[in-house]
DNA sequence: TGAGGCGCACTTTTT
DNA sequence: GTGCGCCTCA
């Protein structure tokens, strides 16, 4: 069909561009007004097509660039589109409206803040939404379903976040969702999954018959629903929290924009007039909210100029709400829509396409078969690659290590053999962590590569060093927390960046210990660490007897470092926060990190990200100081993402390592798909979020999961241009058999032959050696004279013994050297409970020999725990101050029934170990039996509030013969 | 068939 | 901390 001949006269430049398109592409580009669905398989030139379509529209009379709206899913795609368009139409491209769905929503909201009653609305950062959620959780009343007094108080934070985003995305009002949950709950008893088919004998004995409800199963699901109901109930509080900060989140960007347009006809008309032509990229990735916004704008016309491009076979973001159903919905909504299928592939060889094709035809959920007359078979059209006869390879390795070692060796050979870059190479895995081994081996072999992965900057060494500095600075600015300052200083002095010889730090610690002992003996106040260090380093004045024998370099280093640290503390009080951070990072921490970094570029990027974050925080909160930053740090660290930074690598590397999801849209001459085991590609992850009614949840079930995974595998395969290698391991490192994923089996069914790859011992050996971490530096040992003196009157208590068994080095520092340690919440909470119980029993042994009322016990706890008020963050203190009394009241109720008030409290024991040290210790409580000869020995074990409840409820009873 | 115990993981990504 | 798969037992 000679389409171009029928067209109005087109500019010569565009004509030549159109001539480069194939017949189907031209058909789409020159389609007259009206909806058009372009089904664009991999490598069929869809971005090119979109750009050409815009160029074509611009040649039409009465079409102005600003009336054309291009919608993409990601920022990167939007940039890419603008770039392409510049090539096609020149500077006019800047006037075309190119948006992501979210930026369009944001535009509509910000242009119409007045309608929403606010002019100053800003998008919320991830951090801000997390803070709002934390406030919501903090504000829960006692006894609320989602309140956690013990354990992680913010456990449900990310589940809430996910729930609220889903609600906004799907347009569920809280009331609607509650109704759906209630309906679901009412229907449970008639759901076959909750009925006995054949009750077990024990249940039969209780009169259960087939068809009766399984009580515990029903109750369990109802409890889940209850939690969901409670969570939905927090939606309004979350929205109110955002509003109080004048913020809207990602979900609101779409939901509010849609709502504005729906409710306000005048507004809708103005946008409908503004945009007259619509083009949507990656249509299979759009979700419900995005489609609604699009249709609201396009529905002004009965026959809108609306072009959507997508590929049902590459829909891989179902977990974000994307659905192939959106593509079906398009054809239902516009029955008159034309459909163009792009089949000519300009990327891959015929064998690669045939392999991918044979795999994907197994999917049922495809447009093929649903749209009449639709045919979709990829045809190899690449000038050079199409005719390549090379078949994809299937490689079976013994273990993942064999696989990584062999691939790394092959890549290294290519690189070092000067065949690099012979063409770009991509290595694809399902999950990030499957790539770790290979990345490590490549780094060791000196092969440059790029890896796309976001890492948490806050968990990297540069940030942890900064964190230590800030903790000390913060603590030393708060005079009520000397212990925390001491502990932070001791840790800080060990930073490699400060280069203090470790042996001298030990000598300093020993010196402080002997100072403490002498001052105790003399009944005089003990110097804190910073003051002590000052005395110890003082060259002038009389040398105190406890002054440690520091090395000359050590003394010099310590003097410099303390001056530096003091300088930071002073600067914190005077300089703005971003400047302080720059001082600390740029002058001290960064140079030290750079000197030993394997990837200096990465460390620089981390430094940039950290400083940028500091500036952003200072802007967000005008008076923000170090302690505010540390608080934010804590919030960020508690969320899964932390402070994300794209981990790059060498920018120009010809080798890229990525996950199948992030490989979408990219291509390489040679592609390796690694780790094709069933466990990686078809794992069923535990759903830990809130239960949704099944009618609202996206289609699940094994068939749908399988097809989603097959589409992802299809995406991975179709990245390859010439060489495609699919690998898996037969066993894991422990020797357990691994099942290759079903798609591998399908490829074998379709005629590919798997080969067992034997990796040479030397290659394996190198890989194993690379894997071993470098040995830790030897721990410094103080001179034996000092050590002997230290251990002169050493007694082995149960605490010390436990500590030693857990970690000898930690025991040496904490128990022998007694370096300062800050009190953590477990310790403070545990000892308050412990002391309260101890005193309570002592009081019970007064002549009356009876327990006091529960409130007496609670009062004891309150008195002891109040010491912790200044040592814990306010919220943690509040939470534990509430949890303690609850715990003790519970215990008291039980103890009334089964415990005697006559117990022996704090029983001291000693044991002489033959030839060894004396073991001393204290038994918390002995409950004497009636026979007067035996008793129960109790140890409270109150350390962690999470487990204290259980341990108090069920003490382990050990009968003991008293002598 | 189902109850109960135990071991074992704990994606993918964008705005 | 939580839920799933797998096992055994009745």
UniProtKB/TrEMBL annotation:
Domain UvrD-like helicase ATP-binding: 19-349
Nucleotide-binding among keywords: yes
Coiled coil stretches, renumbered: none
Highest taxon above the source species: Bacteria
Ranges of residues in domain UvrD-like helicase C-terminal: 350-665
EC number, UniProt record: 5.6.2.4
Binding-site residues for ATP, renumbered to this chain: 40-47
Pfam families: PDDEXK_1 (PF12705), UvrD-helicase (PF00580), UvrD_C (PF13361)
Entry annotated with the keyword Isomerase: yes
Alphabetically ordered keywords of this record: ATP-binding, Helicase, Hydrolase, Isomerase, Nucleotide-binding
First-level EC class: isomerase
GO cellular component: cytosol; DNA helicase complex
Gene Ontology molecular-function annotations: 3'-5' DNA helicase activity; ATP binding; DNA binding; hydrolase activity
Catalytic activity from the UniProt record: ATP + H2O = ADP + phosphate + H(+); Couples ATP hydrolysis with the unwinding of duplex DNA by translocating in the 3'-5' direction
InterPro entries: DExx_box_DNA_helicase_dom_sf, DNA_helicase_UvrD-like_C, DNA_helicase_UvrD/REP, P-loop_NTPase, PDDEXK_AddAB-type, UvrD-like_ATP-bd
Homology family: Belongs to the helicase family. UvrD subfamily.
Name of the featured protein: DNA 3'-5' helicase
Organism whose genome encodes this protein: Hymenobacter lapidarius
